[in-house]
From TrEMBL, chain B:
This is ABC transporter permease. The chain crosses the membrane at residues 51-69, 102-122, 134-154, 194-214, 243-261, 323-345. Pfam families: BPD_transp_2. It is found in: Cell membrane.
Length: 347, 366, 514
């Protein structure tokens, strides 16, 4: 299981390419061309990163859950739940010192996300619900509860602001884009590395892979398959909750009903496109974030040749293309989707 | 027979009870709420007509999802297919002035169905040619359809973006189509204020046709066999790929029909806001109705009632209508995992029905 | 008297519908190979799963080295020095050998997996026990025989002193089986104790120190190999005199029914799995296709029945060219029937009734259909008559076929297939996992069809079945027909060599004393 999987290579390659182009646009006369600025300007890069973060977190959430064998299409719901919970926490602690209030709210997002993850796990494992339907339940429940409980008069005061990293943020072009970001953004990028190491280099990771590929083999070596799956769905929920927390506490600052707007589903696509690996997911999330950035850049640059609705369709169409395997085969964990029963073997 | 009805019934009752619990938890009065709900659904002639009227799209989207389930496919794309049905039907409905109703109306309806069929066939084709799982593709297509619908009636932006092809030029800043011509409107059974249109008949007709198709014909046998065991179906000579595409197209056509009927019978125009949540609702209706056409009718009646009563409930008791969505999520959970109900009510299980379905094979590609 | 290294006393295991083990008493001495013999469903694997902690006994005790123990999970079993090599390998295909061996007993350094140390241990073990493996190889790339070595190393890695081998020879060629026996010998010399589960009589006589026979969950008796014979063991396994041969007259081959030229096809992994296959079957003869599973037999059947596309070559059935025809075309125009090797996966729909399954591949033909509408009454009548004729034991024609026993399911499938007008029958593993009574019945039906003039192609990995039924035997190896033997000249030795890719004439064959 080498680091340099095909998708990881694509991811890193793409990122390098974009940064390179951005530098060129910034420094050389290339930047005078409108299209160059639209496609490779710093504004596009910034937007890409901001759009990619919830997708990265969502994809990591999906990876943790699905690698252990449980399909998770409920990321959208867990994200929304985390967003709403973070909002409620923040708007209830407006009178606290800002960073304490924000930190507390992030914890609440994580916690509620984790609860939703556990719910998904319980429905899928304990009650053997079809995992896609279980994910659907999470989505509807989160939407219903968050709308039902939403107090339209509540306001959250303050959100996370950028923390420039000394020295590194001075580097032309790359600096402001990569090293002048708010905390959850840094956290998300670090989590890519952390999850990668965890899956491929730790005991937990090896067992997770086994449980997702061939649970009976893991069981016969004394590994508690379902306990590991519960653990992973909980972590999965926490990451999705963090993504929701990012939306409210770092990106927007307030809650809006349905603010996740399909990001949970695009995260799924990023996970699949990235072949269930963290760096692959990073690459896919960056790509999808880039399409959203382009949409914005076109709008701001007054590009009217393509109707904006069609530009908005880009992430979804790219996703369909990705899932159709037109860009290479994707291989999900072999035992995914099937509930595991212990004393069920015959003979 | 009774056993089949027991789970859905208990699921509903338990969901309502849990909903009441949630309301109590957050300081609302469930009794008042449920009173308002029943009043809004059954309390008057107006209420009944609202219930019936709201039933129609549920019947058709529920059938759409149920038919797909029969073939082992998961159609989450009902809302996108619904939108395409609306757009296609309205495009006929607002043009061709002077066409007699006997041609205009069926043409518009059929074209709407056709739009839905295409939107259903695409994920079907992708599934059989590339192995792409229909859940992801249909979800993505939902968003594409919504955007497409938005484009067709776009009023034009402040930066000189061109308006959409179906936009009503007299509507100024509002993004919507002109009214559907009277020759393409579905006639009323009871006109305003009741507003029950003949779409009811179409929906019930669809139920009958689907029932006959699934249980009495060879096509239905093939669909069901593919759903139960695709390998055995292939061994038996059934062309599995063709069946999958056909079923998805049929499912799309049903949801598209729902959109067409709503547009031509009720709204008499198309605007992007119409038809948001139908997708997941269809899933719940299909499962609550045990994926059987008759069951779908009953489940739709229920959902129509819930929908009809929601506004009155909010008005009478101040409880946000969104609690209905929570209750629906609970119903879905209980119906999809009979084990929960059995655990709560200590029913003995038969064993076989409790296993997860085979809907999630080929997740992520072949 | 030495304390047995392992002993089970009065072990019983009840499942809701079946008694898997009843009052079993068994002792395993240190440094011995005990063979546990029994048919499919006799309770051998259940007993071993109890010892390995995968099941809990309903009653009874287990003693390890004289001390009573509770084995609640594989973890406990491993701790007691018990290791198990399963019939269906418990290996994760996408992980390497080392990762598979480590799984559950991972060595960790500074919080991270220590693959190097584990690799070293694997290499040491593979050297000490002559089980050559490459630690960094991906399991899915390894041939079956090597995968089995990984399974054994897994047990040894965890310091197993007691090894349970569950049907280890099912997927090996006769030569690989010899290799395995050499390893077992080595293990025995090093003081390990082995329980060897099998239903193959010859192996038991070859390698065991002692033989225990289970039948229907109970211990029927223990024998010394010296005192045993195949016939006696078979009788103990089955409970009555069993005909190891099928009564049949000589074949009278007629017209050429199945004719294939240079068949070539790819399998699901895009590898060539059929290579220049030429196979002919005449009316009134049974051609048996022998070979270890995985040498192309499955794909050959798929290609002949239209379930897999042919890359090159031609197929003629009854004179018609049916190359790359659809399954339905082949069934209708070729007049063939197919008894599939995996009835659960695709031979039937378990949730459908017996009646519906009986028309699974004829529902679209009159009298079962009128236009597009299904004719229920005709289907019911058909079911009644077939159930009676073929002795399918079922509460009713409406019963879901999934609740029938394996034997009755297979009888149902046979009923469906051979009651159609056919000229060619393709039967793949027709008696896999079935009770002896049903096996006899099915064999008789196959021979009866042959005598009616039907051409029969029999594909089976059970050499005994092939040798008992076939008039002509071909052996498949690595996707080609490697050799052909008439049934009169066929011996297990000859077939075994062919199955392993060795031409018998090029080997100096030692006459063994067994």
């Amino acid at each position: 299981m080498s680091f340099w999987t095909r998708t990881a290579r694509i991811a890193v390659g793409m990122v390098f390419l974009m940064l390179l182009m951005a530098i060129l646009v910034e420094i050389t006369p290339l930047g005078e061309n409108l299209w160059m600025r639209v496609f490779f300007g710093i504004s596009a890069l910034n937007f890409t990163l901001r759009a990619a973060i919830p997708l990265v977190l969502g994809a990591l959430s999906g990876i943790l859950c699905e690698r252990s064998g449980i399909i998770n299409i409920g990321i959208e719901g867990m994200m929304l739940a985390g967003a709403f919970a973070g909002f409620v926490a923040k708007s209830s602690t407006n009178d606290w010192p800002l960073y304490l209030s924000l930190f507390f709210s992030v914890m609440v997002s994580l916690g509620v996300g984790g609860l939703m993850g556990l719910l998904h796990g319980t429905l899928s494992i304990r009650f053997r619900m079809d995992q896609i339907i279980s994910g659907s339940v999470i989505i509807i429940l989160a939407a219903g509860l968050s709308s039902y409980l939403y107090d339209r008069d509540a306001i959250a005061v303050g959100k996370f602001t950028t923390l420039p990293i000394p020295l590194l943020s001075e580097i032309p072009v790359i600096g402001p884009v990569l090293f002048n970001n708010p905390p959850i953004t840094y956290l998300a990028l670090m989590l890519v590395f952390v999850v990668h190491i965890a899956i491929f280099y730790t005991r937990w990771g090896l067992r997770t892979i086994a449980v997702g590929e061939h649970p009976r083999a893991a069981d016969t070596e004394g590994i508690n398959v379902n306990r590991l799956r519960y653990l992973n769905t909980m972590f999965s929920g926490m990451l999705a909750g963090l993504a929701g927390g990012y939306l409210v506490l770092e990106a927007v600052g307030q809650f809006q009903e349905g603010m996740t707007a399909g990001r949970g589903f695009i995260s799924l696509a990023a996970m699949i496109f990235g072949n269930w690996t963290p760096f692959g997911a990073l690459g896919a999330a960056t790509l999808f974030g880039y399409t959203q950035a382009l949409q914005n850049e076109f709008l701001m640059a007054g590009v009217t040749t393509i109707p904006r609705q069609f530009v908005s369709m880009l992430p979804y169409v790219v996703t369909i293309v990705a899932v159709s395997g037109l860009v290479g085969r994707v291989r999900p964990p072999a035992a995914i989707g099937k509930p595991y029963e212990t004393e069920g073997g015959k003979s | 027979m009774l056993r089949v009805l027991l789970i859905p019934f208990l699921a509903l009752v338990t969901a309502l009870a849990l909903g009441a619990l949630v309301m109590l938890l957050f300081g609302d009065d469930p009794i008042l709420a449920y009173q308002g709900l029943t009043q809004g659904a059954f309390g008057s002639g107006r209420a009944w007509s609202t219930t019936i009227r709201k039933m129609i799209p549920f019947i058709l989207t529920g059938l759409s999802v149920a038919v797909a389930f029969k073939a082992g496919l998961f159609n989450i794309g009902a809302s996108g297919q619904f939108v395409m049905g609306s757009v296609f039907s309205v495009s006929i409905g607002i043009h061709f002035e002077g066409l007699p109703m006997i041609i205009h109306l069926p043409l518009a309806i059929l074209f709407g169905m056709f739009g839905g069929m295409i939107w259903g066939a695409i994920p079907g084709l992708l599934k059989v040619t590339t192995g792409a799982h229909e859940v992801i593709v249909t979800i993505m297509l939902n968003y594409v359809a919504a955007l497409f619908g938005g484009w067709t009636v776009y009023a034009g932006g402040t930066q000189g973006q061109t308006p959409g092809p179906l936009w009503d030029r007299t509507a100024r800043a509002i993004s919507e189509t002109p009214d559907v011509l009277s020759s393409a409107q579905i006639p009323w059974i009871f006109g305003p204020p009741y507003r029950v249109h003949c779409g009811v008949f179409l929906a019930l007709l669809a139920v009958g046709i689907i029932w006959w198709l699934i249980y009495k014909t060879t096509i239905g046998f093939e669909i069901r066999t593919v759903g139960q065991n695709a390998k055995a179906a292939r061994y038996a000579g059934i062309r599995v790929e063709r069946t999958v595409v056909l079923t998805m197209a049929l499912a799309g056509g049903l949801a598209g029909l729902a959109g067409a009927i709503e547009t031509l019978g009720l709204n008499h125009k198309f605007a992007p806001e119409f038809g948001g949540q139908v997708g997941f609702d269809g899933i719940i209706v299909a499962l609550l109705g045990q994926t059987h056409p008759i069951g779908v009718v009953f489940a739709s009646f229920l959902f129509g009632a819930l929908d009809a009563g929601a506004a009155k409930m909010q008005f009478e008791s101040g409880v946000a209508a969104d609690i209905i969505q929570v209750i629906q999520a609970l119903v879905l959970a209980f119906v999809a995992a009979p084990l929960i109900i059995k655990a709560i009510f200590r029913l003995r299980s038969k064993g076989e029905e409790d296993h997860a379905s085979s809907l999630n094979t080929n997740w992520g590609g072949s | 008297m030495n304390t047995p290294v392992l002993e089970v006393q009065q072990i019983s295991k009840f499942f809701p519908a079946v008694v898997a083990n009843k009052d079993v008493n068994l002792k395993l001495q240190s440094g011995e190979i005990l063979a546990l013999l029994g048919e499919n469903g006799a309770g051998k694997s259940t007993l071993m799963n109890i010892i390995y902690g995968l099941y809990q006994p309903s009653s009874g005790e287990i003693l390890v080295r004289g001390k009573e123990v509770r084995i609640r999970s594989p973890h406990d079993a491993i701790g007691l020095g018990i290791g198990m090599v399963h019939q269906h390998f418990q290996l994760v295909p996408v992980m390497t050998v080392v990762e598979n061996v480590m799984l559950g007993s991972e060595s960790v350094r500074q919080g991270l997996l220590d693959r190097d140390m584990a690799s070293q241990r694997v290499l040491d073990l593979s050297r000490d026990y002559q089980l050559e493996v490459d630690p960094c190889a991906l399991v899915e790339d390894l041939p079956v025989g090597i995968q089995q070595r990984v399974e054994i190393i897994k047990a040894l890695y965890r310091k197993a002193e007691i090894l349970i081998l569950d049907e280890p020879t099912a997927v090996l060629t006769p030569q690989e089986i010899e290799g395995l026996f050499e390893v077992m010998d080595l293990l025995r010399k090093q003081g390990k104790s082995i329980i060897f589960i099998t239903h193959k009589l010859k192996e038991v006589l070859r390698i065991a120190d002692r033989i225990a026979v289970l039948r229907q969950g109970e211990l029927v008796g223990e024998v010394q190999p010296k005192e045993a014979s195949e016939t006696r063991l078979a009788a103990m396994m089955v409970g009555r005199e069993v005909m190891l041969q099928v009564d049949k007259t000589d074949a009278k081959p007629g017209a050429l029914i199945l004719e294939t030229h240079d068949l070539q096809a790819k399998n699901d992994l895009e590898e060539t799995c059929l290579n220049q296959v030429n196979l002919n079957v005449h009316a009134g003869e049974i051609v048996g296709v022998a070979g270890v599973q995985g040498n192309g037999q499955t794909e050959l059947v798929e290609v002949l029945t239209g379930l897999r596309p042919l890359e090159k070559g031609r197929i003629h059935i009854g004179g018609k060219d049916l190359t790359n025809a659809t399954p339905r075309q082949i069934t209708d125009q070729g007049g063939i029937c197919h008894v599939p090797e995996d009835r659960h996966s695709f031979g039937m729909v378990t949730s459908y009734s017996v009646a519906d399954n009986l028309v699974l591949n004829s529902y679209y033909q009159p009298p079962f259909v009128n236009g597009v509408m299904i004719q229920r009454e005709s289907i019911e009548e058909n079911a009644k008559s077939l159930i009676q004729k073929f002795d399918v034991r079922t509460p009713s024609a409406q019963t879901p076929v999934g609740s029938l026993s394996g034997g009755n399911q297979q009888k149902m499938i046979i009923a469906r297939e051979i009651s159609r007008p056919i000229q060619l029958m393709i039967a793949a593993q027709p008696t896999r996992g079935i009770d002896v009574g049903s096996i006899e019945f099915i064999h008789q039906q196959i021979v009866a069809k042959r005598d009616e003039g039907i051409a029969v192609l029999l594909v089976s990995s059970e050499l005994d079945e092939i040798m008992a039924l076939s008039d002509r035997i071909v052996v498949m190896y690595r996707g080609s027909i490697f050799g052909e033997v008439s049934s009169k000249d066929a011996t297990r030795k000859k077939l075994g060599l062919l199955m392993a890719g060795v031409q018998p004439n090029s080997e100096s064959i030692h006459e063994s004393s067994h």
